[in-house]
Design brief:
Layout lengths: L1 H4 L49 E2 L2 E2 L4 E4 L5 H10 L5 E4 L4 H7 L3 H9 L4 E3 L18 E7 L10 H18 L3 E12 L9 H7 L2 E8 L25 E8 L3
Parallel strand pairs: 3-4, 3-6, 4-5, 6-7
Antiparallel strand pairs: 1-2, 7-9, 8-9
Length: 252
């Protein structure tokens, strides 16, 4: 982490350096951040020269990328491998490192793949209050990604269903304060059954965000990505069919 932090430079919240044309499901316990944490204030990840930009899906090595709600970190490690070097990636999980070691066989391998390529890996990061996090809360990103948000409730009562929507709403409320002027927030969620009742586009609109695009998510586009349950155990869930909702800041 120290090596990465030493390369970071400050910039204006709306500034940008490079423009190119080109949770997994998570159980949500209450996490209280420690107060009075002394941490260097940084708000930029290092930029990548255009001539070595690499791409996978809609993501490139030139984008400053934050991933939240990672399970076994197989999605973020997939990006890191595709980019070759990945100083542009910060990957976070809600759970502790001990929980991940005990539940996901490939976690340590995936974490090593990230860190050896230059990524920062953080644990116990709550997407609902991440703007207050002592490290990432002051940073500006080009892409913030939350794959398959889930509040850990499987009942069908109205109260339980509202928890899922609240999770998405709180995440978007934080994320919109952490992207640059041309930044995007990506939420991937299943697109059948009760997941459709969440109406993620409306939640984004209610937060003052523009829905830029809504596309089908194809897991095979990300080699090595495994969709893990956030409450433990090393089983994969079926993510088909799913959609990725891409939001940007309002033009108003």
């Amino acid at each position: 982490m120290g090596q990465i932090l030493s390369n970071l430079t400050e910039t204006n919240k709306k500034g940008k350096e490079l423009v190119i044309d080109d949770g997994d499901e998570q159980v949500i316990p209450e996490i209280v951040l420690e107060k009075n944490v002394t941490t260097p204030v940084v708000n930029r990840l290092p930029s990548v020269p255009k001539e070595i930009v690499r791409k996978i899906g809609p993501y490139t090595s030139a984008q400053r990328i934050l991933l939240v709600g990672e399970g076994d970190f197989s999605f973020s490690s997939c990006l890191a491998v595709a980019f070759g070097t990945s100083h542009n990636i910060i990957a976070t999980s809600l759970n502790s490192e001990d929980f991940l070691i005990n539940n996901y066989a490939e976690f340590l391998t995936n974490k090593a793949m990230l860190e050896t390529r230059g990524s920062m890996v953080l644990h116990e990061v709550d997407a609902r209050i991440m703007v207050k996090h002592p490290i990432i809360g002051s940073m500006v990103f080009d892409r913030i990604i939350y794959n398959f948000p889930h509040a850990g409730q499987f009942g069908m009562t109205d109260a339980e269903r509202r928890l899922h929507k609240k999770l998405v709403r709180d995440f978007l409320r934080n994320a919109k304060k952490m992207i640059g002027e041309d930044g995007e927030i990506h939420i991937t969620s299943k697109s059948n059954g009760f997941f459709l009742e969440w109406n993620i586009p409306k939640i984004g609109n209610d937060q003052g965000l523009n829905l830029l695009q809504e596309v089908n998510f194809v897991r095979s586009d990300y080699p090595g990505y495994n969709t893990k349950y956030g409450f433990g155990g090393d089983k994969n869930f079926d993510c088909n069919p799913s959609k990725t909702y891409k939001f940007g800041l309002s033009l108003q």
